[in-house]
Specification:
Strand 5 and strand 6 form a beta hairpin. This protein starts with 7 loop residues before the first strand and ends in a 9-residue tail after the last strand. It has nine helices and nine strands. The chain has a single domain, classed as 3-Layer(aba) Sandwich (Rossmann fold). By secondary structure, the protein is α/β, with parallel strands linked by helices. Helix 1 packs parallel to helix 2, helix 1 packs across helix 9 and helix 3 packs parallel to helix 4. It has a seven-stranded parallel sheet, sandwiched between helices.
């Protein structure tokens, strides 16, 4: 799928971090981008910079997702690319100070990171399936979900987060197989340690310690590198049904 002015995209969690980098990159390719996020204030500078649309959408709420798609499609038309970057990452051990992990917090993480990705991907696929095929391969759309190296190497305190990202990894192949006859591809990216605003807010010594764990290059990943991979996946039709680790060969230690 060639990224150009004829393509419409949805980016969840697009107000900041990896999602914002994706919004910038797609906009630079003249793609019409709509952001699904909860933080409109944070999105405002990005909207002004890129001309993207913004819709306040809680991805864990299927009805809110449906409304977001309806409103975005009225302006930008049927999306051909969806990139799921929305996510939360609270830390809590299975048992801490004699108390079991908060079940409500666990459910919330699963609801945003896994169910939210499913809500957006499945509803996008339903719309894409009705679109006219494009290009030599008669493609209708591409869905890219964000997993994490934590889905493979979950650390102490990451039981909820790692579970949610493991679920994203696990749904990639069956969803791609489900949608193959409709000309829709599904991929996931599992980033390692990236220099997102959250990580950049850590003390310098913490950032340096994180970077030192990465074999090569021994630095934090750049959000632009994540965005570049999103664009490559969109434009390379043989990438389907798999998860790409984008991590500098890191394998996370227990803590």
């Amino acid at each position: 799928m060639k990224l150009n002015k004829d393509i419409s995209a949805i980016v969840t969690g697009g107000a900041s971090g990896l999602g914002a980098a994706v919004v910038r990159h797609l906009s630079s390719c003249c793609v019409k981008v709509a952001i699904f996020d909860m933080d409109e204030a944070r999105a405002q500078p990005l909207i002004g910079e890129t001309g993207s649309l913004f819709f306040k959408v809680d991805v864990s709420d299927a009805q809110a997702v449906a409304r977001g798609f309806e409103e975005a499609r009225e302006i930008n038309g049927q999306e051909r690319l969806v990139v799921n970057c929305a996510g939360i990452a609270p830390a809590m051990k299975t048992v801490s100070r004699g108390q079991a992990h908060d079940a409500g917090l666990y459910a919330k993480v699963i609801g945003v990171n896994l169910v939210g990705s499913f809500n957006v991907a499945s509803q996008a696929a339903a719309g894409m399936a009705e679109a006219e095929p494009i290009g030599e391969d008669k493609e209708r759309g591409v869905i890219i979900n964000t997993a994490s190296v934590a889905g493979y190497d979950g650390q102490i305190g990451q039981v909820a987060y790692a579970s949610s990202k493991g679920g994203v990894i696990g749904m990639t192949l069956p969803m791609a197989r489900d949608l193959a006859d409709k000309g829709i591809r599904v991929m996931a990216i599992a980033p390692g340690i990236f220099g997102t605003p959250m990580v950049k807010g850590f003390p310098r010594e913490v950032q340096d310690a994180l970077a030192a764990q990465i074999p090569f290059p021994s630095r934090l990943g750049k959000p632009d590198e994540f965005a570049a991979l999103v664009a490559h996946i969109a434009e390379n039709p043989m990438l389907n049904g798999d998860v790409i680790r984008l991590d500098g060969a890191i394998r996370m230690p227990p803590r």
